[in-house]
Every structure is written in C-alpha cells, then in structure tokens.
Specification:
By secondary structure, the protein is α/β, with parallel strands linked by helices. It has a single domain, classed as Aldolase class I (TIM Barrel), CATH 3.20.20. Helices cover 43% and strands 14% of the residues. Strands 1-2-3-4-5-6-7-8 form an eight-stranded parallel beta barrel, surrounded by five helices. The chain is globular. Bound molecules: phosphoenolpyruvate.
C-alpha cells in the first residue's frame, strides 16, 4: 500500500476504567514521541468506549502529536426512541474521525447483519465520520476454503448502494474471526489473499481509482513481533488491533512498524 498512508487503529473493546484510559492515551503519545514516530508514516488511532471519548478529545486536542480517535459502534438511526444508542451526530460533536462498524463481536453477540452494517456505514459517511467496516470469516468457513467468497459477500452487503465517492472515503478491516483474540494470527499470505480480493472487488464495482484509495486493514492477533510481515503485503494498509492496543509499548511498537 505505497500510496496509502498506513492506519493503525486500537480497538479497546469494553476495557479500562476512566483513569486507565487517560493514562493509556498520555503514555501512548509520550511513547510515540520517544520512539520518534513520524505521523506521515503511520496514522495512529484509538477506539475507546463511548464514555471515554470526551476525555480523549480533550487530551488529544491539547497534544502536539496527532492521535486520532473514534468509536466502536454507531446507531443506524439519526435520533429518537432508541434507548442506549449513540448517533453519528453525537460522535461528530466529539470530533471523532472514525467509527468501527460491523465488528465480528457486534455481529456475533448483537445479531448485526449485513443490512444493518450497511445502514450504519451509510450513516457514518453521511455524518462525515470514516467508517472502519469490519468483515471476515469464521473458522468453519476458513476450513471449507470459502474465505474469499464469504468475505466478499460481506463487503458487497456492507457497501450496497454507496456511491464511488463514499466508498473511496471508507476503510475496510479484514478480520478473520478465528484470529481475533486467539493469539492465532493469519499468515501474511492469508491476509494478502483476502485483502487483495477485496480490492479487486472494489475495483470491479467502482473502478481502479476508488479501489486504490481505500485502506484495507488486517485484524486478528496483531503484535509487535508479527506486524512487519503483515504490513509488507501490498494490499494490507494497516491493522486493527484489539488486545495489544491496551499495552502501551506493544501498540506504540505496532504503530512504529516502519
Ligand atoms: C479486534 O478486536 O478487532 C482484534 C483484532 O482483536 P485482537 O487484536 O485482540 O485479536
């Protein structure tokens, strides 16, 4: 992904108390600074729980190092009687740049299907927030060798009805479910196979110029000791990092992979 700036996004999931969240953001910016991180070489983003976003906004705005941030989910609705939901407008008011959509844990535990992921993706885009659209097969699909058609069908579903301009503005994260939180990282070749298939599909549907702009991340047990080989793949433009994003040194080393 030479023309695309690498994106390293840390998905905290439902972890850390507020004081720990503050400490992690502060230590992360110090550590990136200490490691002479070059923001031109990778964009670093954290996805904290909703309840930490206002504080992260304050911390980030006061710091000279650019740390991006966003949410882990967003409602498909604009506003109204949707108890417990958070709207894209609320996230925009917090200056969020990104939002994860359709993470496998949302799909698995909250019954999110492609149609809902599509609605959330469109809503995020219309509110000016970059969706990180998560796709990826489970172990049964991988064992049956169907990872490419399965994942492409999720991509088709998530991006249905979007304009080429909208697609050009989003991020896709390929996260094989069997690699998430398991310590079992996909091989660089496995990651490249599906990420390149996704880019080809984008090219078929929206043209090569659009496909060329979209950053495609890999996610699933990324650590500082495996990030370089994954990032060396031509169609992998960054990583979505779960567990390792809670450890400052690890996540800073992942961000500083170059
Ligand atoms: C994730 O939650 O998106 C993820 C990739 O988790 P982990 O890095 O812990 O496998």
């Amino acid at each position: 992904g030479q023309s695309r700036k690498p994106l390293m996004a840390g998905n905290w999931k439902m972890n850390l108390n507020h004081v720990e969240a503050v400490g992690l953001v502060q230590k992360l910016t110090w550590t990136l600074d200490d490691k002479r991180h070059d923001p031109e070489k990778s964009e670093v983003v954290v996805l904290p729980p909703f309840t930490d976003l206002r504080t992260v906004q304050t911390l980030v705005e006061g710091d000279r190092l650019t740390l991006g941030y966003g949410a882990q989910d967003v409602s498909a609705h604009d506003n109204g009687a949707y108890t417990g939901e958070i709207s894209v407008e609320m996230l925009a008011k917090l200056n969020c740049s990104y939002v994860a959509v359709g993470h496998s844990e949302r799909r698995q535990y909250h019954a999110e299907d492609d149609a809902l992921v599509n609605a959330k993706t469109a809503k995020a885009l219309s509110g000016g927030i970059t969706p990180i659209v998560c796709v990826g097969e489970g172990l049964d699909v991988r064992q049956a060798g169907q990872q490419v058609p399965y994942t492409l069908s999720q991509v088709d579903g998530a991006l249905a009805g979007l304009t080429a301009e909208q697609v050009a503005a989003l991020v896709i994260a390929y996260e094989p479910v069997w690699a998430i939180g398991t310590g079992e990282v996909a091989t660089p070749e496995d990651a490249q196979e599906v990420c390149s298939a996704i880019r080809s599909r984008l090219s078929e549907v929206h043209g090569a110029d659009v496909a060329d702009k979209v950053r495609i991340l890999y996610g699933g047990s990324v650590k500082s000791n495996n990030v370089a080989s994954i990032m060396a793949q031509p169609d992998v433009d960054g990583c979505l990092v779960g567990g390792a994003s809670l450890q400052v040194e690890e996540f800073a080393a992942i961000a500083r992979f170059y």
